[in-house]
């Protein structure tokens, strides 16, 4: 029986695209976020789409403003941490 396999290796980590970096910078700015109340009484966080003016992308839904704010405060540091990168 013959087995075929293939391996890949990198000399460095894959680079993050400029488009992704720009999105992270946009999302990290809290001024690009809003909180809306849904018809069912839940709250939703949304960030403004950097490519389409007036378009908002929903991120998370929570039952109370406290839960929503807590989740947002956990999410933003992760985004800010990802902004710290090395470019070659």
SSE blueprint and pairings:
Elements: H1 18-28, E1 33-37, E2 43-48, E3 56-62, H2 65-83
Structure description:
The chain is built from 2 helices and 3 strands. It has 88 residues and is α+β, with helices and mostly antiparallel strands. The chain has one domain. Strands 1-2-3 form a 3-stranded antiparallel sheet. Helix 1 runs antiparallel to helix 2. The mean pLDDT is 76.
- Which segments are poorly predicted (pLDDT under 50) over 5 or more consecutive residues? none
Q: Output the radius of gyration.
A: 19 Å
* End-to-end gap: 45 Å
Spatial strand sequence of the major β-sheet: 1-2-3
Total individual domains = 1
Strand content: 15-25%
What assembly state would you assign to the polypeptide chains in this entry?
A: single chain
**Biggest sheet descriptor:** 3 strands, antiparallel
Provide mean pLDDT, rounded: 76
Number of helices: 2
Structural class: alpha+beta
By DSSP, the count of extended strands is 3
């Amino acid at each position: 029986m013959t087995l075929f396999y293939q391996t890949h290796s990198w000399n460095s980590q894959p680079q993050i695209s400029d488009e992704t970096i720009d999105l992270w910078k946009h999302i990290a700015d809290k001024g690009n976020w809003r909180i809306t109340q849904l018809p069912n009484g839940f709250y939703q966080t949304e960030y403004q789409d950097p490519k389409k003016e007036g378009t908002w992308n929903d991120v998370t839904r929570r039952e109370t403003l406290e839960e929503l704010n807590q989740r947002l405060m956990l999410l933003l540091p992760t985004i800010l941490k990802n902004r710290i990168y090395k470019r070659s």
